[in-house]
Amino acid sequence: MDGSAAVPSVRCVCRFNAQDADDCSPDPCSNGGTCADRGTQQWECSCPLGYTGTACTINVDDCLSQPCGAHGTCTDSGLLDYSCVCDSGYDGITCTDDVDDCASGPCSGSATCIDTGANEFSCTCPDGYSGCLLYTSDAADE
Questions:
Q1: Same structural domain for residues 39 and 52?
Q2: Which of 35, 99, 45, 91 is nearest to 68 (CA)?
Q3: Which domain holds residue 33?
Q4: What is the arithmetic mean of pLDDT over 114-118?
Q5: What is the number of structural domains in the chain?
């Protein structure tokens, strides 16, 4: 021998008991969203009605569905709320009601008023009469 001692072979077995941390603590979801841990450093929020986004921080634009239709302008008024400003001749919460242009009584006497559309009407005079219109829609607006 050369005077050196043989070094025994050493094998190290390391055990690391890693546990996935709860990615929902602290809760990353805002506005009442519910967090679900989806694995290592992964989570997902289920947002309550009216909110969207990764962490439920974005107020859903309630006008995206065009609730005021073709006859109104929508304004998002906050969480789950909107308002419509209706075009002339239309009314109602969602601007779908044609205003009754005969309601103001624009035809004279026994004439019959017929609402023919938004801001439109016609007067039908009884037989033997003419000039049954008392005023036009424009005059009523003045």
A1: yes
A2: 91
A3: 17-60
A4: 91
A5: 3
